[in-house]
Structures are given as C-alpha cells and as structure tokens.
Amino acid sequence: MSMPSGASGGGGESVPEPQSPPHQPAQSPPLHAPGQPPHQPPPHVPGQPPYQPPRAAVTVPLGKMLYLCVAALGVINLFLGYVSAGDGDSMNLYKVGVAIYALAPTMFFLAGLVAVREFLPRERAPGALPAMITTAIFVTLVLSAISSDGAGDLQTLFLVFGAVQFVLAWLAYVFDVRIIGARR
Fold it and tell me: Are 54 and 82 in contact (CB under 8 A)?
C-alpha cells in the first residue's frame, strides 16, 4: 500500500506541490461579467464605486438644426413685414398696394411652419417643401425688386432675410436627405 504524500514515512518519493502563477497586475473588470448578458451591469465589487454605464452625447443632426433655423427666419420675416419704411409714413409691407409684398412675409412664415413639421409628434421630415415654398417667393421677390423703380431699405432688408432663409432651406434639405453628409 502506498502512503499519501506528506505523511511521515520513509518513502523516497515526493510529489511536487503546484506552483502559484507569477503575480499579474489587476485588470479592470469587463463591461459585462462572463455568463451575463451584455445589457446588465457587472456585479458590484466591494471597495470600488458602483458601475455607471457611459453616457452617450445627445446630438441633433445638422439637417434638423437647419430646419429650426428656417423656422426662426420664417418668424423673423413675418414680423419684418410690420416694420415701417421709415420715410415719415407708417407704411409697412402689409399696407403697400403691391400684393407680392403683402404675401411674401406670410409665405416665408409658411415655409418656416412646414420646416418644423418633423418636430411634431408622429410626423415625418418635411423634405423639400420648405425649400420649394421659399424658392417660389424669393424668386418672385427678386424679380419684383429688379422691375421696381428702386429698392428701399425695407425691401432690401427683406430680400436679405429672404435670401438667407432660401439658402438655409435648401441646405437643410440637402443635409436631411444626406446628399451631403456631415463630417464626424
């Protein structure tokens, strides 16, 4: 009969003891413990702060931000129609006898309202509609300004704000449908 190792006796055979592995530095725990689904946090280790998943930054796509700018310019253009011409009389764009000047602020505002359609519940992206409305009224304003006797300060100011809304509406559409992608 053989005796287990470590027992006293005269047996010359000795069984070597297993060696411990060399000391390894502590590793950070994985994002999820083995055997657990990845959506559950790892178990809390005493002495360490509790696990907090990384927070994702909230980003708004450039197309949506540009649609918001189009909406803001629509409101600005609507109230710009109430500005007095400044030549002593109280004429604003709504009181002028030319129909295009009375209609233009309203159409720019309509384009702004359509641009915020995506932010309403259960609605989809406005697409090219704000850009097309803005283009129609802006081209009409430019042609009217070319054929008029001279552009007053109010008409010039309105054309500038209309041009900015026109450009932003088309940029919003281009970025929203990802014809041009924003760099990351």
Answer: no
The single-letter code of the amino acid at 161 is F
CA distance linking residue 107 with residue 78, whole number of Å = 8
Q: What are the tens digits of pLDDT across the range 123-133?
A: 888 889 999 99
Query: Is 2 within a domain?
Result: no
pTM above 0.70, yes or no: no
Whether residue 3 is contained in a domain is answered as: no
Whole domain around residue 150: which residue ranges?
62-176
Number of domains in the chain: 1
pLDDT tens digits for range 37-49? 566 666 777 777 7
Closest CA to 52 of 38, 42, 66, 63: 42
Alpha carbons 51 and 55: distance in angstroms, whole number? 12
